[in-house]
Amino acid sequence: MATRVGIIVLSGNLDKVLPAFIIGTTAAAMGMEVGMFFSFYGLNAIHKEKHKNLKVSPIGNPAMPMPAPVPQILTIMPGMMDFATSMMKSMMEQHKVPSLEQLIQQAKDLEIKLYPCQTAMTLFGYTVEDLIDGVEKPAGAATFLSFVNAGEKSIVLNF
Fold first, then answer.
1. For residue 136, what are the CA distances in angstroms to 35, 38, 80, 92, 128?
2. Residues of the chain with pLDDT under 50
């Protein structure tokens, strides 16, 4: 029985979804069984259309590198999320960091279980048809926790 890693994705921000997939795919590549539970705004990471438009949130992220120093108060200006997202995607491409689409495909290839939260789907009015192909059937917290708890060792991370 292998170590099981459970990753809870609650945020729909690109700068939180990417690390969740990077840790998940790395754990799976190391032979661990991985399940990712997408709830609330994290559900957008596996939504057919919305995952393509996730953005980086500069709000409350003072460590984010900017081409020129920007006072934190200016991060709430209109267009700042688009600017931060464009900058992040450019840096990822320059350093050959996989895109979200590539990470999702890697997760599927590595047989990571992608659990959409049934409660969040009901809350936001999503159907199974709204989600990317290859996800598990919508599940509740008990199903996800049962998956994680069935491992010899269990690790749970929250993003």
1. 10, 11, 35, 29, 10
2. 68, 71-75
**Angle of CA points 154, 47, 20, to nearest 5°:** 35
pLDDT at 109: 98
Phi, psi (rounded to 5 degrees) for 21: -70, -35
Domain ranges within the chain, ordered by starting residue:
4-158
pLDDT given for residue 35 in this prediction: 98
* Rounded Cα–Cα distance for residues 40 and 121 (Å): 8
Q: What is the pLDDT of residues 44-65, one digit of tens each?
A: 999 999 999 898 876 655 555 5
Amino acid identity at 89: K
CATH T-level fold of 4-158: Hypothetical Protein Ychn; Chain: A, (3.40.1260)
Structure tokens at 5: 């890693």
Provide the whole-model pTM.
0.85
Q: In whole angstroms, what is the distance from residue 49 CA to residue 92 CA?
A: 21
Q: Rounded to whole angstroms, how far apart are CA atoms 141 and 37?
A: 8
**Cross-strand pairs, 35:** 6, 113
